[in-house]
Every structure is written in structure tokens, then in C-alpha cells.
Design a protein that fits this description.
The chain is an all-alpha fold. The termini are far apart.
Length: 145
């Protein structure tokens, strides 16, 4: 596998949450990505050392990603996806992030979407525009009929 040039982030990407339930949900979500990383690494028979070497990061930083103490950067999601043979978007969603194309489809609504998804109450709702923006329509090719 090719070695990627990834820098280690000194600051975790902590989501903004309100209330005890939201904090617990966010903590659970951050561990979901780490558990997925660890499980997939073990399924592939890779050690922390070998995967960290492939990714160009330290073993301790990879351990922090797996334990949920740190969150992957966008470049790290891509490199992890290649190394672990799992879609990068699956890793992003497990980490509580939206894939870039989804986030760009709803500019200014990403925080509301993530908050609504993480809420425990069923009353959480987000209102979306009834029509897609021109920018989104230009980016997404039409579906052939």
C-alpha cells in the first residue's frame, strides 16, 4: 500500500453539542468511528504499528484515533479508507461528519443536520429548501432515465 503524507492534528475536531444527552451521544458517536477503525484493522490482520507506518502517522496517534480521543482529518479519512478497504464516507458518518458532497448540498445547515441526527428526542427537525440550489444542480449530473 502506498504511504500517505498525513499530518497529525494537535486539536481534536470536537462537535458543538448542548446538554448532557447530546454530550453522551457525541462521545458515543466518536467512539463508533474508533471502534470501526480498530475492528477493520484487526479483520485485515494489521497491527497498530504496521497501519500507522502505512499512513505515515505514529502508533500512539493511531491508537488515539481508535479510542476516540482524536478525530481523523479529511485526508486521513481518505488514507484510512484505502488502507482498510472501507468507504471514506462510512468512516466520516461513523465520526459524526457528513460527506463533503452532502455538506455542500446544504450550506449553512450542516450543524443543524448533525444536531438533529444526534438528538434523542423525536421532535428534532430541520427544514430544507424545497428546491436545490443552482450550485448544487451544476455539481451533480442529472440521473439518466
Amino acid at each position: 500500500m502506498p504511504k500517505s503524507n498525513l499530518s497529525q492534528s494537535s486539536e481534536p475536531n470536537e462537535p458543538a453539542v448542548n446538554g448532557t444527552a447530546a454530550i453522551q451521544a457525541a462521545a458515543s458517536q466518536s467512539h463508533a468511528c474508533g471502534r470501526l477503525l480498530r475492528d477493520r484493522r484487526q479483520e485485515k490482520g494489521l497491527t497498530l504499528t504496521s497501519l500507522a507506518s502505512t499512513l505515515g502517522i505514529t502508533k500512539s496517534y493511531l491508537s488515539m484515533l481508535e479510542s476516540g480521543q482524536r478525530h481523523p482529518t479529511d485526508n486521513q479519512f481518505e488514507a484510512l479508507a484505502i488502507a482498510l478497504e472501507v468507504p471514506a464516507d462510512v468512516l466520516r458518518v461513523a465520526d459524526g461528519r457528513l460527506p463533503p458532497d452532502v455538506a455542500s448540498a446544504f450550506p449553512g445547515k450542516v450543524d443543524a443536520i448533525v444536531s438533529a441526527i444526534r438528538r434523542d428526542d423525536s421532535g428534532a427537525k430541520v427544514t430544507f429548501a424545497r428546491e436545490l440550489s443552482e450550485d448544487f444542480q451544476r455539481r451533480v449530473p442529472p440521473v439518466p432515465e
